[in-house]
Design goal:
about 200 residues, 4-stranded mixed beta sheet, alpha/beta, globular, 8 helices, Rossmann fold
Length: about 200
């Protein structure tokens, strides 16, 4: 399995006039957030787009680092002005990807990674058809339920809603360029890195 170092990948990027947009999606609780954080630690040359949201910050979250926290009125104004590359409502709150920040990075030659929900990924496919997409799958729904319960953050009705939604999202996995099962964390992470290398190869050819 070939995995480029951060230095080699960064050097390769300098030869491209434009970066790529890479979408990472999967059901809640599948571990895509942890995969994303570790990927960015290993590959600082990648640009992570910070989403905007109307939900309240959780303990330890920093505005501008984890999310741009804004109110619903401001969010809806930005939607009306077309300032989101994609946006969606999830669990009663809005989430969206600021358009201009992403385009600026891509035009400067940096590849941008987005961690977004299924509906947002579908919007990206329409508005940015050259984007590459990765869907993270759980080993099984039973394992996904175990992980969600293990977080201890949700009441029973919320867990039931998440599992129902996850089942629907998993049915859409074949819409994505790559499907990766997050059974073993390191294996899944290496598979994402390999996918990024393959995306580079496709662009070079």
């Amino acid at each position: 399995m070939q995995v480029l170092s951060s230095q080699n990948r960064a050097a390769t990027k300098q030869n491209h006039t434009q970066g790529k947009l890479i979408v990472l999606t999967g059901p809640s609780g599948v571990g895509k957030g942890t995969l994303m954080r570790t990927l960015l630690q290993r590959h600082p040359e990648l640009y992570y787009s910070v989403s905007a949201t109307t939900r309240q910050p959780r303990p330890g979250e920093v505005d501008g680092k984890h999310y741009h926290f804004i109110d619903r009125n401001k969010f809806e104004q930005l939607v009306a002005r077309g300032e989101f590359l994609e946006w969606a409502e999830f669990a009663g709150n809005y989430y969206g990807t600021p358009r201009q920040a992403v385009l600026n990075q891509i035009n400067s030659g940096k590849s941008v990674v987005l961690e977004i929900e299924l509906s947002g990924a579908r919007q990206i496919r329409k508005s940015f058809p050259s984007a590459k997409s990765i869907f993270i799958l759980p080993p099984s729904l039973a394992e996904l339920e175990k992980r969600i319960r293990g977080r201890g953050q949700d009441p029973e009705d919320a867990i039931a809603r998440r599992l129902h939604r996850a089942n629907e999202e998993i049915q859409a996995a074949n819409e994505f360029d790559i499907q990766i099962i997050n059974d073993d964390f390191e294996t899944a992470l290496n598979s994402i890195e390999t996918a990024l290398d393959n995306f580079d190869t496709c662009q070079d050819s």
